[in-house]
Amino acid sequence: MSAAWIPALGLGVCLLLLLPGPAGSEGAAPIAITCFTRGLDIRKEKADVLCPGGCPLEEFSVYGNIVYASVSSICGAAVHR
């Protein structure tokens, strides 16, 4: 039986370990935020967040379009058109 597959398997495992993880905070659970949490309130470059349901859309402060100012509500920016 040939053992030529062993180096290939080792290379495959190494490549899997070098691949980037999921977007956000290294696969961590999303951060539960309020309807009025602003971008500057989260001190991470990237973070997965969970907005609550039933936020009063007319009360959001949102500044920008596609790219939003850090003073914008995160949940408001998520639903902004």
TrEMBL record:
Secretion signal span: 1-25
Classification via SUPFAM superfamilies: LCCL domain
Source organism, top-level taxon: Eukaryota
Xref: Pfam families: LCCL (PF03815)
Keywords in alphabetical order: Signal
Occurrences of domain LCCL (ranges): 29-81
Protein name: COCH isoform 4
Organism annotation: Pongo abelii
